[in-house]
Amino acid sequence: MITTTDLRKVYRSRQREVVALDGVDLHVPEGEVFGVVGRSGAGKSSLIRCVNLLERPTSGTVTVDGTELTALSGPALRRARQQIGMIFQHFNLLSSRTARENVELPLEILGLGRRERATRATELLELVGLADRATAYPAQLSGGQKQRVGIARALAAKPKVLLSDEATSALDPETTRSILKLLRDLNRDLGLTVLLITHEMDVVKAVCDSAALMRSGRIVESGRVADLLATPGSELARELFPLGAAPTREGGTVIEITFHGESSGQPVIAQLARTYTVDPSILGASIETIGGRQVGRMRLELPGDFEQNVVPIGFLREKGLQVTVVSGEPRPPAAGTAVQERLLDGAEELGTQLLPDDDQPAGAKPAAATEPATTDQPAASDQPTTSNERGEKEDRA
């Protein structure tokens, strides 16, 4: 339903350029709730504003419902935008209009008659649960009620796509849950494709079918939430289901298991303990219900080193769990390590006798250890140490 290809957005000023989007490739399937998450400044809001061309991208293409928006302008672009509804973070309601009149505004711009506008606005306010607040002004509404009016206004033109830019970030947790439930109901009942921008992982877990992680203007990871959980090393899975820092203590094998689908309802850990007489320690766990299914991650410590736990780990994998060994797995020695150790041992054994002395000729013997001089011993300078020195003395004589 929504596809961006090599999307770039560069904001230019007199002194510098800011790259907000750097080659973004994104695909949102029809009928899904798709979440884009990332920290502030990652480029999320720039992306969603480029999708409906409130910001025209510097380069790249945006296609919505088979229409390439970046190739349109003027009246053609305005007609194509009627298929896209937009929910804003700060509601953007007109304070001089009632809730019903705010919902009627886009229909008024489209040229619909007063009666038709009023009928459509009343239906939408009832859909979002505000039929009894139709004549209230924004100042008389709570934050959650204002956002419901904003959602009703976004649906006025019967769009196929709904864009949500941090729609719940200014709301309390209970109101956030109610708004997310409303978006999910609209997705199911009206067949809407929803693209939402958020920095809250709880939003993704509560409502999204698929998700993408943005960083520095790029999509670094994307996919269905359930599939990401089963992907070893998934950064987005770690963000969605954090387990904290891995322990550094020694003496056991620490593993992380990911479960979803049928395996989430099985007493696998209890079966492991009974079958192999092991006492696993639960170091951390995160379990959620996503799309009606329980999914999550768990960190366990098994007693003993990795070799002692090969069979129990295999048992967990046979039960359909994704298992990653965090610590305790032996690492293969680096290439050449054994040879280097043998050489070093040999060098220590032989001492410095095999090593040339930089202060002596290559054929010289190593100097003896220095001992305190006595009157009974001649000076070292009177003692020729090589045949060359003896020859030189004979020539001088």
Q: What would the CATH topology of the largest domain be?
A: Rossmann fold
Estimated structural class: alpha/beta
- Give the distance, in angstroms, between the N- and C-terminal Cα atoms: 105 Å
Helical region count? Answer: 13
What value does the average pLDDT take?
81
Q: Supply the CATH class of the largest domain.
A: Alpha Beta
Largest sheet: 6 strands, mixed
Q: Which bin fits the share of residues in helices?
A: 25-40%
At the fourth CATH level, what is the homologous superfamily of the largest domain?
Answer: P-loop containing nucleotide triphosphate hydrolases
Radius of gyration: 36 Å
* Structural shape: elongated
Q: What's the architecture of the largest domain in CATH terms?
A: 3-Layer(aba) Sandwich
Question: Could you name the ranges where pLDDT drops below 50 across 5 or more consecutive residues?
Answer: 349-387
How many domains, as an integer?
2
| Strand order within the widest beta sheet | 6-7-8-3-9-10
Q: What does the oligomeric state look like here?
A: single chain
How many beta-strand elements?
14
What order do the SSEs take from the amino end to the carboxyl end, as H and E?
EEEHEEHEHHHEHEHEEHHEHEEHEHH
Name the beta content range. 25-35%
